[in-house]
Amino acid sequence: MSAHYDFIVIGSGPAGQKAAIQAAKLGRKVALIDRHAAVGGVCLHTGTVPSKTLREAVLYLTGYNQRGLYGKSYRLKENLTMGDLKQRLQTTISREVEVIMHQLSRNGVQLFAGVASFVDAQQIAVVDREGKSTRLTADKFLIATGTHPYRPENFPFTPGRVIDSDTILQLEQLPRSMTVIGAGVIGVEYASIFSALDVEVNLIDGRDTLLGFMDRELTDELVHQFRDQGMLVRLGEEVDTITLQGDDAVLTTLKSGKQIRSEVVLVAAGRSGSTRSLNLDAAGVEQNSRHLIKVNQYYQSNQEHIYAAGDVIGFPSLASTSMEQGRQAACHACGSDQSRPLENFPFGIYSVPEMSMVGQSEQELTKKNIAYEVGVARLRETARGQIMGLEHGLLKLIFGLEKRDLLGVHIIGEGATELVHIGQAAMVLNGGLAYLLNSVFNYPTLAEAYKMAALDAWNRLQ
Predict the structure, then answer these.
(1) Per mean pLDDT, which of 76-80, 364-368, 385-389 is the most reliable?
(2) Number of domains observed in the structure of the chain
(3) Which residues span the domain enclosing 371?
(4) Which end of the chain is more exposed for a tag (fewer CB within 10 A), N or C?
(5) Do 188 and 280 have their domain in common?
(6) Which residues are bridge partners to 232 per DSSP?
(7) Beta partners for 143?
(8) Which of the four pLDDT bands, split at 50, 70 and 90, describes residue 64?
(9) Of 269, 301, 321, which closes a domain?
């Protein structure tokens, strides 16, 4: 069998979904290929959605967010199990699959379930689970296959004991202790989630700071809260060996000589592009040592008719930016170019507590010799914060001294990933200090912190 399409998308994650739908809306004949029977990609099945759903289930079932009112011993459900947490996860995933399938069907996108590989620059083969091969050709292609966890060869990965961010969801029971290697976004999120479950967590990273792209004041606050809730954070430490001991212990030895024993080790040491099965050499598409594809501003690879978007092209590797990259790539491929640099997009870290930012940090502005002033509001100082029993959390605004424009928004605490969009809108629409000072926010809300922070900055500027 063979068929020709105007646009073929490989991978049904955020970038692939939006690209396929956009191309279809522009009147193109579109095929979407994924190796799994269920659409959604890594984002839906092992990445973003599962980890965030797990976080919500943990915060709800443990009563974590109510402990500021009722004390640290407060629990909504005692003796939580992995089964309790996975129940909500499966419901969320199945419903999201239905939504995606409806959108693709409504727009006439043809779905193929199978492993795609390039035969040459214009043709791919799709092999389904029964081994049946289908040849497809297209004028334009988009690779949106995402990434998978990087697994150091010297680590003894073992189900339920030495695991990565994909296999963590296969744990059958909650461990009493966990060592997390890697304090990037994934490592920080899972370390904090399991710490909220009263699991004894050790977080290890070779760098001197965690989440180096975030504002230093927020990451310092995050580390303080981690340690306050009992987490052991070891920065500037590199792992030498991981050794299985008996049936219920794993020994992690650091290059400094320190040894940490725990039931489970989660390795969050970065990710690699999921391109090995694509046979990119046959198409002449170049990739780096981590199997990431280099693209230009239009998301074209070195082969102009083959595009790539999403995590497979590297930073920023966010579901939100991947969606827009896929949409822009499809527009350019279909001759309806809407490409523009992705600027002033927010970062969201779904740790406990969550963090978010948009714009520049103090460290970036200092390096650029840009004069600025800061305004800070503590979330507990808002009436809404008192109602919710918040003990921590802050919103930090950075304004330029010359124009008093908003240069950066940095939030840690309850609702950070939602609150950041107010600052994002103000920044994009050139709403600076004067705008925030003269705005009225609902009372009582956490959003009031914007006006409080603006007033704080105004006081400093006088």
Answers:
(1) 364-368
(2) 3
(3) 353-461
(4) C
(5) no
(6) 202
(7) 10, 308
(8) confident
(9) 269
